[in-house]
């Protein structure tokens, strides 16, 4: 017989608490819907950003 698989426990990115990283947790990697919504709100308000270079204007491109 195979032993039951123990779900992996990860740190919730929002609150730092334990979160079950398995299909049984619909909010993974977050521990709950509240933490998921807090993270989504931070992205929506641009509190989280991906750094990027400013776009090059067409007149600055080499010909």
Automatic annotation (TrEMBL):
Per UniProt, Zn(2+) binds at 12, 15, 31, 35
Q: Enumerate the cofactors the protein uses.
A: Zn(2+)
Cofactor annotation remark? Binds 1 zinc ion.
Report keywords, A-Z.
Answer: Metal-binding, Zinc
SUPFAM superfamilies referenced in this protein's UniProt entry, alphabetically: Glucocorticoid receptor-like (DNA-binding domain)
Q: Name one Pfam family in it.
A: YacG
- Tell me if Translocase is a UniProt keyword of this record: no
Its assembly, as annotated, is: Interacts with GyrB.
Protein's job: Inhibits all the catalytic activities of DNA gyrase by preventing its interaction with DNA. Acts by binding directly to the C-terminal domain of GyrB, which probably disrupts DNA binding by the gyrase.
Family indicated by similarity: Belongs to the DNA gyrase inhibitor YacG family.
This one is known as DNA gyrase inhibitor YacG
This protein's species is: Roseateles violae
